[in-house]
Amino acid sequence: MKMKHYLSAIALLSALSCNNSNSNTNGSTDSVQAAKDSNQAKMDSFKTTADTSKIAASVSDADAKFAVEAANAGMMEVELGKVAEQNSSSTDVKDFGAMMVRDHTKAGDQLKTIAMTKHITLPMGVSKDDQSKMGELKKKKGHDFDKAYMGMMVSGHKKVAAMFEDEIKKGSDTDIRDFATHTLDAIYTHLNSAKNIEAMVKK
User: pTM surpassing 0.85?
Assistant: First the structure.
C-alpha cells in the first residue's frame, strides 16, 4: 500500500510539472516541446491504463505531433498577420495579413475542438525558434517588411502544405486527417496569393 501511494504521488507531481511548463509562455520553456512531451506521457500512460481521460487510442504519435506543429504554425500566421496590418506599406500585404488572421484563427479553433475531444495537448504559444524569427521580422517596416514577410509566407506555406499532405496520407485518426484534408485547400490558396504578392513587392 505504501508503494502504491508513493507511485501515485510521483504521478501527481509529474502531471503538475507538465501543466506548469506548458502554461509558461514567457519563461524559458518551449511551449511546443512541452505540448509534445505532455502528449507522449499521455500516450505512454494509455498503454498501461484504461483511463478515458488519457489521449485517444485512435491518435498515433505522428497525429499528436502534427496537431502540435499545425497549432504552432497557425498561431505564428495569426500573430504575423496582425503585424503585417500594422507594419506594411502595401494594401495587398495588409489584406493578406488580415486573411491570415481570419483563416488561421478559424482553423485554429477547429483544431482546438478536435484536440479537446482527443485529449491532445496543444502549445500555449509559438515555439522558441519561431519567436526568434518573428522578433526579427517585427523590427522591419514598410517595403523592407513587405519583402521579408511575403518571403516568409511563401516558404512557410510550402512547409505547412507538405506537413498537411503527409498527415492526409499517413494519419491514423480520422478526425485529425479530415481536418488536414479540409484545411489544405485554404493553405494552397494562401500559398498562391503569397507568391503573387511576393512577386509584386520584389519589384
Answer: no
DSSP for residue 67: H
Q: What does the alpha-carbon distance between residue 95 and residue 150 come to, in Å, rounded to a whole number?
A: 12
What's the N-to-C CA distance of the chain in angstroms? 74
Output the nine-digit C-alpha cell for 77: 500566421
DSSP H/E element including 125: none
- Confidence category of residue 94, pLDDT binned at 50, 70, 90: very high
Q: Please, what is the angle between helix 91-118 and helix 142-170, to 10°? A: 30
C-alpha gyration radius of the chain: 19
For the chain, counts of helices (H) and of strands (E) = 7, 0
Specify whether the CB–CB gap between 96 and 193 falls below 8 A.
yes
